Amino acid sequence: MKARHKRFLLIGAAVTLLAGATGLVLNAFRDNLVFFHTPSEVAAGEVPKGRTFRIGGMVVHGSVARADDGQTVRFALTDTARVVPVVYKGALPDLFKETKGAVAQGRLGDDGVFVATEVLAKHDENYMPPEAQDAIDRAHRTALSVQD
Fold first, then answer.
1. Count: domains in the chain
2. In angstroms, rounded to a whole number, what is the distance separating the alpha carbons of residues 82 and 141?
3. What is the pTM of this model?
4. What are the Cα distances from residue 148, in Å, to 134, 142, 144?
5. What's the domain range around 15?
6. Could you tell me if 10 and 53 lie in one domain?
7. Which of the four, 54, 58, 102, 133, has the lowest number of CB atoms within 10 Å?
8. Digitized pLDDT (tens) for each residue of the chain, 148 residues in all
């Protein structure tokens, strides 16, 4: 084999290995990425089916209900335009309250109920996740434009 052919073979093998490594890294990223969606996007069916994602908004007043087992909690999140029911099994953060901001991570069930594996609450009176605040602002603008 000539030196020129050996060089092409070596370059081809390097490119193949690099492409394989890139594919593995991108696959790992795809499996670990968790996107944020609003209750309006969930209600419109714009969320990934069977994939974990985050939903955020305000906890609806009067929606928090604890089951008899002491672990399961049902509540609803809203962006002031749509409401999504959430069920969570576990201890809620101390700052979790009705009419306050919260973000839940989990999957959407076939029945339209979001099954959370993690619930995060805001850390002070003025904090709200930027995505949730943006969603609420967009929902207000949409509601105002529909009323006009």
1. 2
2. 14
3. 0.67
4. 21, 10, 6
5. 1-33
6. no
7. 133
8. 788 888 989 999 999 999 999 988 888 777 677 788 899 999 888 888 888 899 989 999 999 999 988 899 999 999 888 999 999 999 988 888 888 889 999 999 888 899 999 999 866 556 666 777 787 788 778 766 666 5
> Could you tell me if 132 and 62 lie in one domain?
yes
Report DSSP letters for 86-132, one per residue: EEEESPPPTT--TTSEEEEEEEE-TTS-EEEEEEEE-SSTT---HHH
Q: Quote the radius of gyration of the chain (alpha carbons, Å).
A: 22
d(CA 35, CA 120) in angstroms, rounded, equals 15
Amino acid at 125: E
Same domain, 11 and 58: no
Do residues 26 and 45 both lie within one domain?
no
Joined tokens for residue 124? 């002070």
Residue with tokens 């290995």: 17
Q: How far is CA 81 from CA 38, 39, 41, in A?
A: 10, 8, 10
